[in-house]
Design goal:
six-stranded mixed sheet, 8 helices, Rossmann fold, single chain, alpha/beta
Length: 243
């Protein structure tokens, strides 16, 4: 589906404004069946993210933040509603096309870094590039560049078990950035870190987003960090509210 066919969700927008949108979500619903009951987690939810924008997603545990990120990341499918990423309506794509869009366009950072323990820091950042088809030498050079940019030049060959929590999360950030994503999704990326380390990792994350111009949606319980972003969205009763 071409970008010109995307219908604005609120007020009519110019073509230029529409093309700035990395992500558009309209009327999203996600329900689960529990026995005879239907549990609705997200209900008629609409939102958007623009290029170069850093958006915080806040709300209590269990409100559906992770569910929303999984849907936007194309790891799950909504019950109803539209998710349009870079002009592509996910519902209109075949499985292979969805996989390619997720692989080439979206980067993920989780609260638990999920690094491969048997591989070194640099190998963890090389792997997703190799999977995406990059030559090994190019992947290694870029992985080293990213890790050095994140202050880990002295830890390239260290395995995750020998790294601190903040260092592991920086490796996870490098891994997410290695594919040069246009949309970055982060689920409590500083949730397991102490306040000082959280600030350091968040500062690095912000710097990378600003320098590369990607859009980022970051779920967090840390309101101090949320207030430093461009917008704060609160997930409440299955919908998002703007602060």
């Amino acid at each position: 589906m071409s970008k010109e066919k995307i219908v604005p969700f609120e007020e009519p927008e110019s073509r230029t404004a529409r093309l700035q949108k990395l992500l558009q979500v309209e009327g999203l619903e996600r329900s689960f069946k529990q026995g005879d009951e239907v549990l609705t987690i997200l209900n008629n939810l609409s939102m958007s993210i623009e290029k170069g924008e850093m958006v915080a997603l806040v709300g209590p545990s269990g409100c559906g933040k992770s569910t929303l990120l999984h849907l936007i990341g194309l790891l799950d499918s909504p019950t109803t509603g539209r998710i349009v990423i870079n002009g592509h309506d996910a519902a209109m794509l075949e499985d292979t096309e969805r996989t390619k869009l997720r692989r080439d366009f979206i980067g993920f950072i989780y609260q638990f870094h999920y690094l491969q323990p048997e591989f070194s820091a640099i190998e963890n950042v090389i792997l997703p590039q190799i999977i995406a088809g990059k030559k090994k030498k190019d992947a290694r050079d870029y992985a080293a560049h990213l890790l050095e940019t994140l202050g880990l030049s002295h830890r390239l060959d260290h395995r995750p078990g020998t790294l601190s929590g903040g260092e592991q999360q920086r490796v996870a950030l490098a891994r997410a950035l290695a594919k040069n994503p246009k949309l970055l999704l982060a689920d409590e990326p500083t949730g397991n870190l102490d306040p000082g380390t959280s600030e350091d990792v968040f500062e690095i994350l912000t710097e990378q987003v600003r320098n590369t111009g990607i859009g980022a949606l970051i779920a967090t319980h840390n309101m101090d960090l949320a207030d430093q972003m461009d917008r704060v969205l609160e997930l409440k009763n299955g919908r998002v509210l703007t602060f």
